[in-house]
């Protein structure tokens, strides 16, 4: 996954990665035992939140017959997730929804299309179960001349009840996505507020070609292509539509992955200026400044990072990615491990099957125990 989160707790110049050495403090057997115990504690004590419907949106399968159209599977999923996560009634999974990164469910859209419909249905439900979702959306897309078509189904992961197929057609993919989103919300019984609907209907770009370059960039990201090639696609997209905020955010992610922190921050600031209502932009900028501050040992950058992460949390208080990022900040920068644990546990309740969140909680509990242990030693001396 090529995004700024990979660098979050990476080594700063002259320092070892704390995660890699989590159990190496003093070489004590007790530390290893404590680590294992905390892993099981973290996993077994998570009570999934049920105030919101957790919805897994899987990349649709390409039925165009053209491999050159494969990249749309990732873009259609991203655009659907970006719209659906605007309503507070839904928590969209997998984590990182609505932002530029490899899709952890990509194996689903690449599965054997010759399978019987029942087998595809079972695979979709199993994928949703592994993610920890209540319901799952899957489907396929096709292109016929100037017409674009997306067909989706919605199913309960546990109950097995299914709705669909819902088919949307239009001359452009953005029109198709908007129609599909309305079908999904209706199937879920979710009625967005007027303000949420306004955000959902906001056109991410007015240029079909800009969207295609963006889509090719996302396809290249999922294929593991070089950052330079992905960056070129994104710059072509932005040149065609400078107001394409999601493309600006995505450019920031790709630049951050190359440790180009200042350029990355500028790109995301451009995105925020265009779409200040998107919490994702504030979260991403906070992560970039957090990492830049760690590398440069800059208190100012870290202070600005905290402001952006708090802004993202204010805008979307139940986004597990934002809660995780802010929790890591409180722990590693402010040394407030109690607050860090509270935020990470909240993120776990929203995304109970996230391995990284379990490990983050383990690390937080471990560091809290080590800090208290040091404090007791100091008090006894």
Low-confidence blocks of residues: 1-37
What percent strand?
5-15%
What's the count of strands? 6
String of helices and strands: HEEHEHHEEEHHHHHHHHHHH
Question: Structural class, from helix and strand content?
Answer: alpha/beta
Helix content estimate: 55-70%
- The number of helical runs is 15
- What Rg do the Cα atoms give? 21 Å
Let me know the largest β-sheet.
6 strands, mixed
Shape: globular
The end-to-end span amounts to: 47 Å
Give structural notes:
By secondary structure, the protein is of the alpha/beta class. 57% of the residues lie in helices and 10% in strands. The chain is built from 15 helices and six strands. Strands 1, 2, 3, 4, 5 and 6 form a six-stranded mixed sheet that branches. A hairpin with a 2-residue loop joins strand 4 and strand 5. The longest helix has 26 residues, at 355-380. It is globular, with a radius of gyration of 21 Å. The chain starts with 28 loop residues before the first helix and ends with a helix. The relative contact order is 0.12. The model is unreliable at 1-37 (pLDDT under 50).
């Amino acid at each position: 996954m090529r995004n700024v989160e990979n660098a979050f707790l990476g080594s700063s110049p002259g320092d070892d990665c704390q995660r890699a050495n989590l159990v190496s403090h003093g070489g004590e057997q007790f530390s290893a035992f404590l680590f294992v115990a905390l892993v099981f504690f973290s996993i077994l004590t998570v009570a999934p939140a049920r105030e919101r419907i957790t919805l897994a949106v899987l990349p649709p399968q390409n039925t165009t017959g053209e491999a050159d159209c494969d990249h749309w599977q990732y873009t259609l999923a991203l655009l659907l997730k970006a719209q659906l996560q605007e309503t507070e009634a839904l928590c969209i999974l997998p984590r990182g929804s609505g932002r530029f990164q490899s899709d952890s469910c990509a194996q689903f859209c690449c599965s054997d299309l010759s399978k019987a419909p029942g087998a595809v249905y079972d695979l979709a439900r199993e994928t949703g179960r592994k993610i920890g979702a209540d319901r799952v959306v899957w489907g396929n897309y096709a292109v016929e001349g100037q017409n674009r078509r997306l067909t989706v189904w919605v199913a309960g992961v546990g109950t097995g009840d299914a709705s669909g197929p819902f088919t949307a057609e239009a001359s452009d993919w953005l029109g198709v996505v908007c129609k599909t989103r309305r079908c999904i919300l209706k199937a879920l019984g979710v009625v967005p507020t007027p303000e949420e609907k306004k955000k959902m209907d906001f056109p991410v770009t007015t240029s079909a070609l800009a969207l295609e370059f963006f889509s090719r960039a996302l396809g290249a990201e999922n294929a593991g292509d070089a950052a330079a090639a992905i960056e070129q696609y994104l710059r072509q997209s932005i040149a065609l539509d400078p107001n394409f905020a999601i493309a600006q955010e995505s450019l920031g992610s790709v630049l951050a992955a190359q440790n180009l922190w200042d350029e990355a921050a500028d790109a995301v600031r451009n995105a925020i200026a265009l779409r200040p209502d998107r919490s994702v932009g504030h979260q991403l900028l906070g992560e970039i400044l957090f990492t830049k501050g760690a590398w440069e040992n800059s208190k100012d950058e870290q202070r600005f990072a905290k402001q952006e992460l708090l802004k993202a949390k204010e805008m979307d208080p139940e986004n597990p990615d934002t809660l995780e990022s802010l929790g890591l900040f409180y722990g590693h920068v402010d040394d407030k491990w109690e607050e860090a644990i509270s935020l990470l546990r909240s993120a776990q309740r929203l995304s109970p099957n996230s391995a990284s969140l379990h490990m983050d909680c383990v690390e937080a509990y471990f560091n809290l125990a080590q800090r208290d242990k040091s404090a007791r030693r100091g008090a006894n001396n």
